[in-house]
Every structure is written in structure tokens, then in C-alpha cells.
Amino acid sequence: MAFVKDMLRMWAHSWKRFISIAMITLLGVAVLTGIYAGCRDAFRSTDRFFDAQGLHDVQVLSTAGLSNGDIAALRKVNGVAKVQAERSQEVTFDLDGRKSATMQEIGTNGIDQPYLQEGRMPKKAGEIAVTRKFIRDSGKRIGSRLTVTPESASSDTSDTSDTNGADGTNETNGTDEAPSFPTKLTIVGVVLDPQNLSNPDGYSAMTSFRSTATTDYTFFAPSDGVTGTLCTSATLLVKGAAAESTFDESYENTVKQVTDRIDGTVKTDRQKARRQELLDAGNKKIADARAEADKKFADAQSQIDANRQQFNQQVDQIVSMQAGAAAAGAAANGANAGAAAAAGATTPQLDETTRETMRETIIAASPELTQAKQQLDQAQSQLNEQKASTEQTLKTKENELKTSIPQVRWYVQDRQSLGGFSALKSDLDSIQSLGNAFPIVFLLVAVMMSLTAMARMVEEDRSLIGTYVGLGYGRLAVASRYLLFALLACLIGGGLGLIAGFLGIPAFLLVVLQGMYVMPGLRLEYDWLYGSLGIALFVVGVLAATIYACVQEMRQTPASLLRPKAPRAGSRILLERIRPVWNRIGFLGKVTARNIFRFKSRLIMTVGGVAGCTALIVCGLAINDTVADLGIKQYRDIYQYDLMVVSDDSDASAMRTKVASDGRVTSSLDVRIESGDLTVAGSGDGDSGKAGSSGSESIQLVAVPEKHLSDLGEMVTLQPVSSGILGTSGVGKTGSLKLDDDGVIVAQSAASALGVKAGSKVRLTNGDGVQATAKVSAVNRNLIGSDVYVSETYYAKLFDSKDAKNTKNSKSSEDSEALTWNAMLAKLSGSDTSQTDYAESLEEDSSVMKAVSCAHMADSFKFDLMGAVVALIVALAGGLALVVLFTLANTNVSERVREMATLKVLGFFDREVHHYVNREMMILTVMGVILGLPLGRLVGGMLTMALNMPSLYFEVEVKPLSYVIAAVATMAFALLVQLFVNPVLDRIDPISSLKSVE
Length: 998
Known about the structure:
- By secondary structure, the protein is of the alpha+beta class.
- 56% of the residues lie in helices and 14% in strands.
- The strands form five sheets. The chain has a six-stranded mixed beta barrel with strand order 14-15-21-18-20-19.
- Helix 6 (249-332) crosses helix 8.
- It is elongated.
């Protein structure tokens, strides 16, 4: 019992060490669990929401639309749980300028169901539900009316189906009709699109640079009132996918098995079958047209023949009358009156030649008959010409049918292709990667501080330990006094850390997240396994340090422990050997120098602890500086142009005319911009950037005219880069990189994520879905977006070669030479504000699809989530620095109580004692800061390397001000700690402190 009482008394006496260990554990567990818990809560709530709304696992799109046969084939794929045919239509309306929207039919099979936020779901024709973004932008409300106009050529699907479409089944021969929605609309509800969780009322402007939406808004309409049998897409749910978390690799593997099956025989067979259906429908149209023409021609010929027969009868009647009159006159001149009478009673028989001669004579003599004959002959001639022309036209159409109907291509996509999903996942993954890295530093510092504190605690009880061991107590029982002390401190600190980690930090992160994304049903959850392991990790680390400290002391005999520890032998320090410096240092300065460098353990612990905390602060500020400069570097330094304008191919000429007529452009470059993909297949054969590397990245394929390849360098800063270490990269000289016909130039943001380097072979997919293998000639410095630059000649070689995949029946090389330059990069005159206003005005023009001002992008680029997390990390690092300095300062004082008492006896005033002790701590703190600043830059580079996000490359940047802030903050913490230490120094009693231990 006395042993226990003494142990409790010892614990109470060491309450400062207890608080230090508990606080370090609290901060470490909070960092370890907090960021993880915040991301996990967001992941889980989003996954539940996706499952509840039936967000599709797979989406299938086709360049020719999807028929009933396609839908039936998808239902037969092994692993498919549900298939829902989707119908949609692009429309335009007037909302402070021309705006576009996608009319989306609400599925009837439970897939991609919008989440009702206000009002009710539409049920009748003409009713729609809109997103909150539309309500905010338009100022409309529930009950408002809206009139929309269908796009004249809203999609290739519509054009193909209207011209060459055929029913997807073999039972009917009718043509498919493109979907058509009502145009007089009434808003009855406000919904959240499960495919896009971006918060329109928040501060998520950072998502604009990676938005993939082709229209401004989405309107949801019921099936009532929607016509057309052709489907624009098909959405699928995969068996077993709902049981997995949509953000886990297991979910991706489950879905990939189904997409691989679709990409196999189903996709190939249905592409061929669909094209054959279109060909059959085209041939049927031609056959129907020929039959209809033949019928019309036959009717016309019958009419002409009937008129000619009537005309011939009239002429023959006149011929007979004239022949009879001539015969009667000849008989009157004869002698036989009876013969005359007989001759008058019959018509003389004329041979054919005579009769034809008489017909021509009669027709020639009569203007009316001549005109009638000419009309009949002209009608016959026109009919013959029409027959020949129609037959020639039909034969031409038959010959052109195969080339006019392109190859049908399917696009099989999973949730990663959804811009809102991929943005949310990449944001959370990046934050989670930080949450996995920072606790390591906290753990190392916790172990170091625990070792320092517990070693001093054991050393103070040296004689007491010897007494207990001499009285027969086992070493384990004696060590349990300190092990239980450390364990209790860890458990209390860890428990409080769990509260902060699963409640405080997640609540903070989720507030920030909800400013960027709408996540219905979000709630905080506790993970027993992860929380227990988090505490266990720090318990093991601290107990290991405590065991080490106990073993170091208890390996001695009781007799040795009962005697005071021998003072450390005096020795010279290195500075003493530098006589010119040493001789100029005062007495107290020499004492300080000897104290700092003779006690190496204290030196290492103090400098290491302060350096670790300073490094954490610098690391957090480095990430903040890196993110803050992304927009400036990309849109001010790399992009030299001020404006990018994109149009439809059909409006390209009008767009260039419009821009040129405005007189704002000082120089420009016409290019072709397409959305595509860059893929690296895991091979390990050296063709790819990394052995076994794999992955895919959405890119912006930029084709440059052959005659203007040299002009690209004036619009975009071309700098070759090579991979570096710890977040660095080697950047070549500006202008040393040239675009040629030997390969493509890949943006650094895409190359870094996929492990691509100069000389690698990659798979490119252009805007038409055509794939080809391309050589990477260089990697260009690029931070935002994934641009791939290709020359006009190399583009034609890639996507019009017979060796290129899926290009066997593509357009001919003659056609490919005339690429449509659908975009323009331009430098503008005027201020940044005027350039931004000009870009906004261009978007209102009907010929312009998109106009982007680099000045606006540079000013508006934000990464709010990363900034919030960095602020959290810096705050926690500052708290850790404060605890570390407090622990070290108290340990330093407790080790030197007799020394301080001696100084007081020698006549030192309290202020002089403060200065004597604090000067050493300040010097050690400065040493730790000097070491921690470059260490923070190093750790920051390592962490930014882990932040692989779509279309982003983090080029590590640490501003001088960040170094100053980190150094000043650490020094401020050191000064703050002095306020707590000085009263302890004042309370040292020289008499009691100098009593002999014996």
C-alpha cells in the first residue's frame, strides 16, 4: 500500500510531465484520426447518397445513339444488375444572353435519380425540376415558366438518326427518332443532380478549371411528353457494386470486370450491328425512294401515252376524212355513177408511208396540232431526263452510303468520367494523403519528448529506485510506476485526441467541404478500430521510450543506484579550440557554450524537437504557397496568350471573323482543340515512362497548323522538364523546346501523374474517339490542365493511318489535310478587367462556344479546401511546438536545480538567473529553427509529390515570408514558454536544493 501511495505522490509531483505527454499524444492522435475521420465521413455519406439515388456504375454512349437491340445486349452482360435507357436533348434559352441546358428524362428504373431539395418532382408533360444553380443564376422560383428552343444540331446522334437511323430491332424497319421534349416548361421543383455535387452557393470557384459540363444547366423532365425512340445513352448498375464503397479499389475492380466484358465482344458486335442497321435503313430509304419514283414515272408515262393516243386518233380521223374526200372527187369525174356511189360509200385503203406523210402534212398545216405534238414530245423528253437523273442520284447515294455513315463508336465510362465525382474524390484523396503523412512527424516528436521526460523522471528517482530494489521489489514492479504513468498520460491524451479527431477536426473539415459540395445525410461517425489503433500507436511509442529509460537506470545494482550519479566528466568543446573566438567570449558565454554542447542528449532532443515543429509549420506554409501560386504561374507565366476562344466546327469561320472585327487582338494563332484521353498501359518494356505504369488522364488535344508551328512558342511558354526528387523538377531554358512532326508534347501535369517522359509511347484518343499510339517528344512545364500539343502533319499521321486503331473506315487522308481550326489563342490589348469583360461578351455570341480569359483565371483560381487543411495543420504544428518547448524547458530546469541554487547563493538576481537559463534555450531554439527551415522545404516537397490530382501538378514553392513566419512563430512560442518557466526558477530554494543527497 505504501508503494502505491508513494507512486501516486510521485505522479502528482510530476504533473507537468504528465500534461506534456498527454498533450503531445492528444495532438498526435487528433492529427492521425481527425483528417482521416473527416474524409471518411465525407466518403461514407457520399457513398450512401449515391446508393440511395442509384448513381450509375457504368455509362455507355454511342456516336449513333443506342437502339433497343443495344439495350437488350447490355442487359445480357454478366454482372449487370440494371440497365436504364436515357433520353436527353440539348436546348437553349435566353438568360442574360444565350444559355444552354440539357433536358434529361428522369429514369424509370431507379438509376441517376435527382434528389429533391424543394417543391415536388415533375409528373406531367411540360413540368421540370431544376438545380439550385439555375435558381440562383436566373432568379426564377418554383412556379416560374420558361420557354426553350431545341438545338438545331444538338448532337451527332440526332443528325445520324434523322438521316440514316434505323430501328435497333430486326422486327421493324422504321427509322428511330431523336428524343424531343416539350418547349413550354414550368418549374415545379429544385433538385440536386447526383452526378454533380458542387455547391453553387458555396465558394467552390476552384472547380471551374476542371469542369467537364458541356451545357450550363440540367433540367429534369418526366417521361410524359417525351417523344423519340432513340436513346442518347444507357446507364448500368453492377451487381455487388453497391456493397462496396465507391471510393475503394474493391469497387473499381468490381466495376472494371463489367466494363471489360462490355469492351470485349459486346461493344465490337453492337458497333458493327448498329452500323449495319444504319446501312440497311439507308438502303431501304433508297429502295423506297426508287420504288416511289418508278411509280410516279409510270403514272406520268401512262398519262403521256394516253394523251399521245388521243392526239394520234384526232390526226388519223383528219387523215381518213381527207382521203375519203379525195376518193369521192376522183369518182365524180368517171362515167359510172354506180361506181361513184360505191366509192363514196367506202374509205380508200392507204399504205403506211402515205398515211404517215399525210399525218405530218396535216400536223404541219395546223398550228394547234403542231403545238400539241411539241408539248407531248417535250413532256416525254423531260420524263426521260428525270428518270435518268433520278436513277443516277440513287446510284450515287448507294455508292456514297457506306462512306457517309461513319463507324459507330461506343464509349464505356465509369464514375471516374463524372467531373463532380472525380473532383470530390481527388480533393478528399489529396487531403487524406496529408493526413497519412503528418502524424508520422507528430509520432517521432512524441517519442523524443517522452524519452526526454521519462528519462529525467527516472533519473530523479534514482536513489528511490535503488531503495525499492534493495528492499526486494522486482525491477518490473518498480518500472511499472513509470510505465503506468506514461500509459495513463497516453490514454487520457489519446482519449481527448479521439474526441478532437472524430468530432472537432471532422466538423471543421466538413464545414469547409460543405462550402464546396452538397452532401445530404452527412454525419460524424466513430471508427472503433482506427481510433483504438491510433491510441495504441502512440502508447507503444511512448511506452517504448519509457522502457528504454527504465532499462538504462535499472541495469545497475542497488548500491550504484543509491549513490548520486557521478557528474559528467569535464571536456573541451570544439569552440574552445578556436582561440580567437573563445578568448573574446565572456565568462557566462563560455558557461553557456559548454552547457549546450557537453549535454549532447539534451542538445539533440531540443534541436530535433524544435526542428520537427518548425519543419511542420514550413511544410504547411509551403503547400499553401504552392497552391496559391498555381494560377499565377499557369495563366501568367506559362500561358502567354490572353484569350482562348472555342467554337463548333460549323461556326469556326464566323468566330474568327467576329474576333477579328472587334479589333482587340494584337496577335493570334488558329488551332484545333479537342477533348481526349492519354493512356499509358502497364508494360514494363521501357516504352512507358515507368516500368509497369498504367493509367489514363483526360487531356486537351491541341493541333497546331504546320505553317505556324514556330508561333506556338509565342502563345505558350515551352520549357522542357525532367523529373526531380522530393517534389522538384529540372526545367530547361525557355524557348529551347520546339514542336515538330516526330511526336507530341505532353503537359507536365499529365506526365507526372502517369509517369510519362520524353521518348515514352502513349495512347492518344482524339475528339472523335479514334485511338492511336504516339511518341512523346518532350514534356512541357505545365501546372493546371493537361494539354497535349501535336502538329497538323503528325495529327494526320496518327489518326488517319491504317495502323491506327479504329481508323480503318475513317475519313480519307485527303479530307484530313483540311482540319477545321475551331479555336483561337490570342493576345489582347487593354487591362485585365477589360480582357475579362471582353471574354464574357464573346460568350454571348452565337458562334462562340467558350471564351476563357487568362487574366480572369489567374485571379479567380482558388483551392479553398487545401487552404483550410493547411491552416489546420499549421495550428496543430504550432501547438506541438509549444508543448515541445514547454517540456524541454521544464526538463532543463529540473535537471539543473542545484546549479540554479548555486547561482542564487553566489548572488545572482532572479532576472540574471532567468537570462542564464533562457539564453541556452533560445540558442537551442535558434539552432532548431535553422535546421527546421530546410527540413520543412524537404518534407513539403515529399508531401506535394503525394498530391497526385487530375490535371494538376504542384510545383513546390516556399516564399521567403513563409520562412520568416515559421521562424518568428517558433521563437514566439519559445518566448511564451519562458513566461511559464521563470516562476519555476523563482521558486527554487537554495537551502533545500543544495542539501547533500546522502
